[in-house]
Amino acid sequence: MNPHNQLNFSGGPGVLPACVLDEIQQAILEVPGTRLSLLGISHRSDWFASVITELEDNVRTLLGLGTDYHVLMLQGGATQQFSMVPMTLLRGQSKAAEYIQTGYWSSKPIIEARREGAVRVLWSGQESSFNRLPGDNELAFSEDARYLHYVSNETVEGLQFHRVLGRDDVPRVCDMSSDFLSRPCEAERFALIYAHAQKNIGPAGVTMVLMRDDLLDDANTDLPDFLNYRTQINTHSNFNTPPVFSIYVTLLVTRWLLHQVGGLARMDGINQQKAGKIYRFLDASDQFYRGRAAAADRSLMNAVFDLPSPELETRFLAESAEAGFSGLAGHRAIGGIRASIYNALSSTAVDQLLEFMAGFQRKNRH
Amino acid sequence: MNPHNQLNFSGGPGVLPACVLDEIQQAILEVPGTRLSLLGISHRSDWFASVITELEDNVRTLLGLGTDYHVLMLQGGATQQFSMVPMTLLRGQSKAAEYIQTGYWSSKPIIEARREGAVRVLWSGQESSFNRLPGDNELAFSEDARYLHYVSNETVEGLQFHRVLGRDDVPRVCDMSSDFLSRPCEAERFALIYAHAQKNIGPAGVTMVLMRDDLLDDANTDLPDFLNYRTQINTHSNFNTPPVFSIYVTLLVTRWLLHQVGGLARMDGINQQKAGKIYRFLDASDQFYRGRAAAADRSLMNAVFDLPSPELETRFLAESAEAGFSGLAGHRAIGGIRASIYNALSSTAVDQLLEFMAGFQRKNRH
Asked: Residue A151 and residue A76: Cα distance in Å, rounded?
């Protein structure tokens, strides 16, 4: 037990449950039920096949997802999905894809999609420095779009959609990298969901893709095998050597979600409570701590705020580090302070942070 | 210390040095010099930048490689390189690339290269079931080839080139996945070397690419960023979240090679000795254990052999597992027995295996 791991407010890779770290530590020397180190077991072993099967099942159970969805574990991060999605769904198509630009991370896939076909940006928050999300009245979804792509939680700006967007007759594609498995998400209303692991569900090195089978019916599969969803589906994410370690850790996190936490509704309750405490504290700080995001669009995962001056921010980061906290610097793209409070960040750690913040404010009131 | 890890003859992911496993175990809770778990440290931290720098330096030192070479750590396995190489060097070119087909793994990149441009297969061992490698008199290299691609060690068939192929005026591209850093390799005679980690240098999830800078001078860089070598070079393998864990383990293995083993010439000496013992044993077994590869082309990494009958092979695998060995089944593509003896597999473990094999032969002599 290393207490600093529990005060890790990093935007990711970040905190993992302490019990999962303990299990991994053991598995580095010997995985229970095998005689071998986690790093020395073949990806063609029965053991690894059972890891993949259990992980797929756990994700289906957590999200209430039917067998018409494939659950894939791929490499390359969400970034690879920025390309795989339009290579598969947009290349050679006459229809345009609709993208919503709500921040740093939703801007990147637009660039990659434009390499492959026509893209219509339905709404952009660029002019308002991405401090809010669009309302329904600002979004004119077309029935003839090839698909709709959006990002459910903007990690950098601390914005999160608290509803499902789009039309039921146009496939929804969603980058849920930073809030996947943090709450129930009506997964079956999406045709494709992708999420890298290193926020809520594991370490860097693996990305989960959920895909409704019929999405590939008229899709492009003339692609290198490793970029071809069909190849990955047919081989159960074991086309070439998968990132065994990262996949196993992700399995342990899903077990924790199912058996310790008790499912996604419970996880959501805990996350709501944690975020609620932080935002109420910001709102009561008399403009010492200034939240960036519009109140209705605040993220349950990343609370982003500024202090009255850059000097105070530098001091805040130094003193918080001294007090044992880490990862509180805002994203290098926008600066400021960011408290990321993913699934494994405990309510106690939030309390400790708020206590520190209250003390810092008392000492530095201007 | 788990003794079974040291008797792991798997084709990969396989054995890692015991001291490295101990260090990783510690790092799961706390990385020395940081206060955090290896799984919770940001890839944008100073610590991770120093990991990348030291790993690049270690590889340069081990191979005597100049600064005109880039050292990259990428995702997607060697499989991704099967595509990235021709996407970059062959797409839109009039010249053909030359490929040598010496086994299971050199066959796959030929398929992916053909998607991108003209490919000339200089030699194929398919008709002789890949039981030998071509001699120099069988290889007519052209001066007008775009590049030459070959695989230095065929893990499945147990074949290894013990010389550098090709011409100095045509860029050499080599998949060294299964013998990288197992011996000095005259790295500067190659324009591009790639190797996934999970044989000699780390766990699954990261692939090393060494690339001479001028190779990109007239190369195609109109590619998605994650498939663009230039992007990866410019960001020091940190374009999007890299597989931090796998990269750190690989760093620890290079430290072991440098400081415990004492460099690649020493490693080669040990590997020669281990392989020598096995092949002498096979040759002296009176055709009970029958090596697959032609004597001159035998691999120092993978000794592949058959027993007199499938029934004996089944019994051999069962009894060897009972005796504590693992990973001895041949590749699913060709069956038989395979003893993979990568860097971290000790000479003592080889002795134990040979003792077991001698006993098995005595009991089952026909």
From this structure: 18
Instruction: Report yes or no on whether pTM surpasses 0.90.
Output: yes
Interface of B with A in 263-322 (CB under 8 A): none
Do A221 and A317 have their domain in common?
no
B chain contacts of residue A36, beta-carbon cutoff 8 Å: 2, 4-5, 8, 326
Is residue B14 less than 8 Å (CB to CB) from chain A?
yes
CB A1 within 8 A of CB A25: no
Q: What's the token pair of residue A142?
A: 């077309």
| Closest partner CB to B243 (pick from A79, A204, A327) | A204
A36/B203 touch (CB, cutoff 8 Å), yes or no: no
Q: Is B199 a catalytic residue?
A: yes
| Domain boundary, last residue among B261, B281, B309 | B261
Q: CB B205 to CB A203 under 8 A?
A: no
Q: Strand, helix or coil at B174?
A: strand
- Measured CA distances, B308 to A201, B270, B285, B286, B290 (Å): 49, 30, 11, 11, 8
| 3-state secondary structure at position A142 | coil
If asked whether residues B192 and B329 sit together in one domain, one would say: no
Partner B, chain A 121-160, Cβ-Cβ below 8 Å: none
Closest to B271 (Cα-Cα) out of B285, B288, B257: B257
Residue A1 in any domain: the answer is no
In a domain, B137, yes or no: yes
Q: Residue A208: which CATH number?
A: 3.40.640.10
Is any Cβ of chain A less than 8 angstroms from the Cβ of B338? no
Q: Which of A6, A30, A75, A84 to mutate to test the interface with B (most CBs of B within 10 A)?
A: A75
The range of the structural domain enclosing residue B307 comes to 263-364
ipTM of the complex in this document: 0.97
CB-based contact (8 Å) between A49 and chain B?
no
Contact state of A243 with B244 under an 8 Å Cβ cutoff: no
- Co-location of A201 and A304 in the same domain: no
Q: Based on the fold, state whether residues A72 and A177 are members of the same structural domain.
A: yes
* Amino acid occupying residue B1: M
Looking at beta carbons, which residues of chain B come within 8 Å of A198? 241
CATH number assigned to the domain comprising residue A286: 3.90.1150.10
Which of B204, B234, B261 represents a domain boundary (last residue)? B261
Nearest residue to B191 via CA among B50, B266, B254, B97: B97
Closest Cα in chain A to B34: A4
Per-residue pLDDT of chain B (366 residues; tens, 9 = 90+): 788 999 999 999 989 999 999 999 999 999 999 999 999 999 999 999 999 999 999 999 999 999 999 999 999 999 999 999 999 999 999 999 999 999 999 999 999 999 999 999 999 999 999 999 999 999 999 999 999 999 999 999 999 999 999 999 999 999 999 999 999 999 999 999 999 999 999 999 999 999 999 999 989 989 999 999 999 999 999 999 999 999 999 999 999 999 999 999 999 999 999 999 999 999 999 999 999 999 999 999 999 999 999 999 999 999 999 999 999 999 988 999 999 999 999 999 999 999 999 999 999 986
